[in-house]
Each structure stands twice: as C-alpha cells, then as structure tokens.
Design brief:
The structure holds 2 protein chains of 2 kinds. In chain A, 29% of the residues lie in helices and 16% in strands. Chain A is of the alpha+beta class. In chain A, strands 2-1-5-3-4 form a 5-stranded mixed beta sheet, with helices on both faces. Chain A starts with a strand and ends in an 11-residue tail after the last helix. By secondary structure, chain B is α+β, with helices and mostly antiparallel strands. Chain B has 3 domains: 153 residues, Aldehyde oxidase/xanthine dehydrogenase, molybdopterin binding domain (Aldehyde Oxidoreductase, domain 4, 2-Layer Sandwich); 194 residues, Aldehyde oxidase/xanthine dehydrogenase, a/b hammerhead (Aldehyde Oxidoreductase, domain 3, Alpha-Beta Complex); 329 residues, Aldehyde Oxidoreductase, domain 4. In chain B, strand 24 and strand 25 form a beta hairpin. The chains are: A alpha+beta, B alpha+beta. At the A-B interface, helix 2, helix 3, helix 4 and helix 5 of A face helix 1, helix 17 and strand 30 of B. The structure holds FE2/S2 (inorganic) cluster (FES) (2 copies).
Amino acid sequence: MTKVTMTINGKPRSGDAEGRTLLSSFLRDELGLTGTHVGCDTSQCGACVVHVNGKAVKSCTMFAAEADGAEVDTIEGQANADGSLNVIQQAFQDYHGLQCGFCTPGMVMSAAALLKENPIPSEAEIRHYLEGNICRCTGYHNIVRAILAASGQDVPAVAAE
Amino acid sequence: MPKDSGIGASPKRREDVRFLTGTGNYTDDINIHGQAYAWFIRSDAAHGKINNIDASAAEAMDGVLKVFTSADFAEAGGMPCGWQVTDRHGEAMQEPKHPILAEGKVRHVGDPIAVVVADTPDLARDAAEAVEIDIEELEAVMDMKAAVADGATKVHDDLTSNLCYDWGFVEENREAVDEAIKSAAHVTTLELVNNRLVANPMEPRVAVGDYNRANDEHTLYTTSQNPHVIRLLMGAFVLGIPEHKLRVVAPDVGGGFGAKIFHYAEEAFVTFAAKALNRPVKWTCSRSEAFISDAHGRDHVTKIELAMDENHKFTAIRTDTYANMGAYLSTFAPSVPTWLHGTLMAGNYTTPLIYVNVKAVFTNTVPVDAYRGAGRPEATFQLERVIDKAARELDIDPVELRRINFIQPDQFPYDTPVAVSYDTGNYQATMDKALEISGYADFEARRAESEARGKLRGIGVAHYIEACGIAPSNLVGQLGARAGLYESATVRVNATGSISVFTGSHSHGQGHETTFAQVVAEMIGVDASQIDIVHGDTSKVPMGMGTYGSRSIAVGGSAMVRATEKIINKAKKIAAHLMEASEADIELKDGQFSVAGTDKSVAWGDVTLAAYVPHNYPLEEIEPGLEESAFYDPANFTYPSGAYICEVEVDPETGEVDMLGFTAADDFGNVINPMIVEGQVHGGLAQGIGQAMMENCVYDENGQLLSGSFMDYTMPRADDMPMMNVDHSCQTPCTHNPLGVKGCGEAGAIGSPPAVVNAVIDALHRAGNKVEHIDMPVSPARVWKAMHG
Ligand code: FES
Ligand code: FES
C-alpha cells in the first residue's frame, strides 16, 4: 500500500492504494466517490469517465498511483457552486437524456470534454465522440439532443414533436 | 396547450438530480462496516463431472474466511422455477434442480462451483486461484435439434431426456390447421432464427447480505426489478427464512430489461454466508462474469407457415419452435416461449386458425429467460417476416397485405384463436400514421437518390401487438404460474397533507417517482412536490410483484389509483363533517373540498390535519388517520400495438447496412408522461435495432462463449443509431383499468427487429436480388453472402 494524493474536484484528497488499484476503485472504494461507475472490465463502456488534468479518461484504464499529484474531476464536482445543475447536467434533465442513470456520470463527463474541445458540435460529431460510452436505456436519441442543447443549439422541446 | 402538471404532462424527472450529480444509491455503492467479499469460482467447462474440489490451500491463506462448496448448502433448496408448463400430452414439464453451487456436475460455462469469501476483493480473487478443482469434461450439448434426438448426451442425468416440454397450442386446432394449410390457395413458409441475446443492463448485478444475530434478521441488498419476489422465492424455497425475518432492498437499479427479474444464486449465497460467517458479505459482478451468469434472452429456431385464400386473407398459421432453456430453468423461463409467445401469434390479424408447437430444450449454455419483450418479440418477428415474404411472393404491397387482414376497429373486443381477447385497438390508424411520418409515399425518390450514389435503399414495415400489463392472477394460475401477478400500493397521507405512496412496482430507469406522483397529484389536486413515491424495499412496501412485462403503470398504477380513491372517499367524509354537509355533495377539485352549489370549502390540508388531530371529527363513523392500501388484479392483459417503419441503405460492395431512419407510431392508450413514454420507446427501439443489426450471443460447439465481453458482443453505440420519430397520438384507451393505459416499456424491442430485416430484404429485392431471408443480426458478412451467394 502506498499513499496517493490528488486534487479531486478542487480539494486535496489522499488515500491508500496498492500498485494494482485502479483509479476507478480508488475513487469509489477508498474515497467513497461512488458517482463514478464501473460497467465493464474491458474499458468499453465509459461509465467510469472522469477528467484527469482536464482530459476525459476512463478511470478503469488508469492506476490510482499514476494519478498521484493530478487534478481529477468527477461527476460529484460538476454542479454549480450553489448546488444547481450545470448547463450540461441541466440539458440532460431537460431533454430526458438519462433513464436508469448508470451511464450518466460518464456521459456527462464525456460531454463536458467534447464541448471543451468543440463548443458547437454537429449531431454526427456528438455521436462519434460518444463511441466510448455505452447507454443501454436511451437509444442515445435524447443524449444527443441534450448535448446539442447544452452547446446552445436549437433543439425541439422534448415530447413536442 | 400542453399541460404542465398531472396526467399527460411532461414534468422533468425528479430522480434525475441525484443521478446527474453522482449521488444515486446503487447496490454497489452500499458498503456495510466489516463486510467481507465473495468471489465466485465458475466452470470453464460447458459440461463436466466434478471429481474433486481442494480448497485447503486457499482456506489457509491470510484474510480468507471460508471457501464454500455445494456441501455447505445441503440444507438449502434449489432455486425454484416460477412457472410450470404442461405439455401437449398433459404431462408436467421436466424440472431439474438448480442448486446454488454445482452439485457433482457443471452444466454451463459460468456455472458456479465454489465461492471464496475474504477480507478484501483482491484477497478473495487471489485465493480463488489456489482452489484446486478437478473436472472431467463431458460432451457439450449445444444444438437443440440434436439434443432431443435419441441417444443424445443428457444435460441432467436424472431427467428422461433434454426435452423440457413439447407444448401444443391450441392443441384442439391442430388438425384443422393442418387441413387449412393443405387446402390453402397459397402457403408461405419461412425458417428463421431468433438470435440469442444478452440483456446487459449497464449496471452489473451486485448482492450484499447482512445478518443481525440479535434479532435473527437478514437483509439482502440486490439489483432486482422485484425485491418482494426475491424475498418470497429465496425465503420460502431456497433458504427457509420467513418473510418477517428477511428484508430485501433493491435501491437505485441501473437498468434491468428482464435480466434482473430472476432469483440468482449469488443472492442466496450472500444471504446465507452473512449468517454463516456473521459478517456482511458483498458480491459485485464483473461484466465478463455477467455474460456467463445473467440469464440470456431469445434463442429460438422456428419454422412458420402462413396459409392464405385467393383473396389473400390469412386462413391459418402453423409454427414450430425449438426454444433454448439453457442448462437450468431460470425463474420464468418456461413461460416465455409458451404463454408469452403462442398467445401472440394472431398478431393484428383475423387469422382464424393457429397452431403453435414449442419444444423447450436443455443445453449446456447459460439459462435463457425473459429479455425485454419476452416471447412477444419472437412471435412478432416470425409473423411480420412471413407476411413480408408472402407479400413478395404474391407481388403485392406488404402494407396492403396487412391492411386486408387487420382486425377492424368495429371488431373489438376481439377474441383471437389463441386464447387472448383484445379489448381495443385501431391498427390501420397506427399504420397510416407511420406511413405519413415516414414519408412512405415518397420513398421512390429517396431510393433513386441513393441509387445514384451506388447504394441500395430499402424500406421495411412491421406492425406488432403485445400482451402486457401482466397479468390476471387466476388466468395465469391456470396456465401454470406459481405466483399471483397483481400489484399493491399504499397511500399514506401525513397530517400536514404531504403524501407518501408505497408501490410494489420498481423503477430501474422508468421514472416512476415522477409519473406515479403525476397521477396522484392529478387525482387529489395537490402539487406533485407534495408526493413521494417509495419503492424497492420490502420493509417499507407491504407487497409487490415488481416491474416487468410493461406492467408498472397498468397494474401498479391501477393499484395506486384504487388506494387513492379510498383516500379521497374517506377525506370526503371528513370534509362533509367539517362543513356540516352531506357526503354526497362534497366535491374535490384542485385540492379543495367544496359543497356543491354553495361557496363552502375546506382545503386538503385542513382535512388531513383533522384526520390526525380528530377533535372535530366523525369518530363514531370512521377511524382517525388517512392511510389506505389496495391490491389490483387486472381483468385482462393490455394490448399496445403499433406500426414501425425503417429505412436502410445497403452498401452493395461491403454488405454494410446503414440505418437511415426509424418511425414508430404506437397506440399505448392513455399516456401519463409523453416525455418518458418516448424515452421508453427510444430505448426499446435501440435494443430491437441492436438485435436486428449487431447483437449476437455465440457459443462454439464445445460450449465456450465466444461473445463474452463488450469487445465481442456488439452493443449499439451512439453512432449506430439514427434519430427516431416516435408518435403516440393514436390512442385507444384500455377499457379495463382505471387509467386507460396499456404500457410502453417493451414495444420498441418487439416491433423493430422485423422492420429492420424487412427493410434490408426490400433493399436487395428492389435491386433485383430475390433473397428470401437473412438471419439476425444482419451483419455485413451475412448481407454480402446473401447477395453474392
Ligand atoms: S468501467 Fe471503465 S470503460 Fe467500462
Ligand atoms: S441511462 Fe441507463 S444506461 Fe444510460
């Protein structure tokens, strides 16, 4: 066991990790940040996406020790300072971009990374970017709409078509 | 003006806030002080004899508490099957024991043999490596037809064969159907496979067992769609724990799709081990483990014959299906290919004679059970494919062939020849709606445009019906169900007027906390924020049959309506007393009770307060308090239906199919929350399109699972899906439940696979390639092969 320290959602946090401890397990089991989910063991599903030094990373593909000293942002740190939902989270709610909520933390974190890179993505660009995030519930339709809306593009209101 | 609250409005989902901020409470987020971790050692062999298990080295390791084998479960029962099917000859199905841990033999890859429990997950896993297991491999029984041939190797030595049952329905019609097929003007025959699927809810299964010695109470936290059913099955049949000593909690659950209905060995294990070790025990499934331990879906091999007269009216249908049960009978497995499949073979059509034969077969594969749609997609796929094939053989428009055979609006209620009676529907209306939205009439122009780009464009149509809102208890009891299928609700009104609703339905993505509150808010006229929906905990909700078969709003919602009606009746009595008026004159509107024809009124909160502070109260007539329960047992199934149209482009060079657009026009009866209903359809469509285009669970001939991870089992991704046009404006309300609702959860997965395959076949036919059928998934390799032979 070694002590690992990182800045998580702006606050220094440290905990014990074995060499083989994944960042996803470290966040969930050691620090109790259970918003980051684990949906697979082959780095395919994206439920575990967090930001490490500003970049979207599947936290199951990285050892906790590798993130020692890094800035890590997770779903728990995404809301506005007053606790209200941020623009992306709000768009997911407004456009019904989630059902069971299990893929949602990863989707929101991926969407945030996408919009940072590409503030006004097209539908095709969104779909392409989400290649590493599986959702079994929504058929992606409303996730794509939520991200379009979060980027300020016109999207017809939900259930109004 | 769209409403902004109550029935028919689309308020934002209240559950979203916790899911969007990482503060949901899924089972794997639950950790109990002092918990130990279970690691299941599973069979690598599809079929084998267990000669020896040596756990001594593992048990000697630091931090290992115990290694469990079947010997530890000598007192426990097997996992029960909840449905007994009676075969064509009046015999009960063959029902093998399904032990918690393998006894003497392993019967599929993934069959659990032993479990290590240790202080940490890593220790448990490391110790599992030290358990020595000697298995003598036996021939794997894989092909269903070979499995029922004479002399085949048996999956279960104590059964007479691998045939679970040979079911005929309706047996009395058998000869008449044969006769009708013989004398028909035209018969279209189609052989097809309904591919095996893995449900893959994104949250893998998790179970945490806890035991309190002081009062001998067990708690199981589990990823279940129906915690009360687990309490009953596991408590009564497996571990012998009475209900009052067993609490089952299914907190936030990350999708189910059927796979989380069933009672699994791991649930019984952690419950048992927590007591045996006097420590909480947690098991978290990995995705690879889920592929070999979650029940699979579908896996039917079918031949269907459709007979028509000279006017193209359907005269008879005969179908023969081999249905894979896997190695053991999962909780509801026997009902899926029979009562959830055979009863749907009339579809939306007036076919007078139908005979369905199903042979259910044991093989050395993971058990197969209900997956979104369960039996109904299998029925719809074969019917809508054979109709499409018939239209091509007869050279008539597939839409027209359906039209001339549709049950007409004035024929309802309509008794089908396969036991079910449809209460309402208007199939031509949904078909017309889908044709309009999809621009069916202008297809040729789009096709020509594709052709100019060297692509083959096709359009596919399907119309489905499903029987859901499961189910009238007395009827399913006659059909072999070993459970009632009612639902319960308790409505507790607090002194200051806020309301807690306890429902036996369970939400694992469907948004009940929002929709159920909308219904009660509308009935009473209070703001939905005054209402909480409580579900998923047997210690809070008195009873529940859970959520599957698109039953939540139709059955659970109806129970809630009945309980709320009782609340309103009692509240009116109190209001009448407070206003010194006759109860018959009391009206409730917008949360105000008033006396008809006067300006007297009292607010909801005044009445609820009086119920709990009964100073001025009719104590001689009614009790204080305001809490009511209801059990609702549906009088019939509900029958959602709809028309699905899909447009694809096939690349003739590669066989690749591009999904261009999908239209769904559904009739769900009344709709409580259109936003949520549309989301349910989107999700169902994605699973149906996934089945049709990419998902496939494949075993090799030795019983090794070839598609055992997301690298080999193709899940639909954002890039694979089109934007979908979904419409639910055609509404023929259900006549036998108080909300007039039919249910929407499974529709998309039922109606879409035939629409996709029909579209691909259409694309090839329009290009002059008269391919008769391509099995799902219509992968580039299969399409290319169909085109180029
Ligand atoms: S858990 Fe990290 S990609 Fe699936
Ligand atoms: S909302 Fe359930 S997996 Fe995406």
